[in-house]
Amino acid sequence: MNRKIGINYLSFLLLLLTFSLTACTQSPVFELYEGRPLEIAVIGEPPEVNEEQVVFREISFDQIASEELDSYDAVIIRENNLSEAAEGKYADIYLNSTIPFFFISANNHIPFTVKETGYNESWHWTTGKGESYAVGVLLIKESESLKSWGFSIGDDYNEDEHIKDIYSSIFKEIDELDH
Q1: Is the pLDDT assigned to residue 10 strictly greater than 50?
Q2: pTM of the predicted model, to two decimals?
Q3: Cα–Cα distance, 95 to 55 (Å, whole number)
């Protein structure tokens, strides 16, 4: 009988400890972008963000090929447009631009910057730890090197809030660039 009470007590203690440790897990702290106003070209529907000083202008693929993009701080290409964005004819535009390009829901910039590489579902974001939710690229003219970014979301997240945080991080990176 004492042994049964001891086992029940130990089980209760382990359960209590498990709940305590789970309750202590901290959520990441999200910081809004508070920098200068940004004007960002977007291919696809403009995202919902928390920042009021960021303005999105919808453009098309035809416009990135013909329009002078220097009036924008960056270009964001949304997830529904990644297949077209990976067409080889756009790689030179991304690699020769003076502003960064960000690809939402892609985990690597290779299908966008290497002409011979096709885009498929394997280049999409997955919920695995360490996978990028968004990637960005910019050719640094002075050093002739490609700067790239990867923005990831952890496994435990509130999708809407975490995605808005990804955008805040992107805005911070854009603000830090000297144009």
Answers
A1: no
A2: 0.76
A3: 24
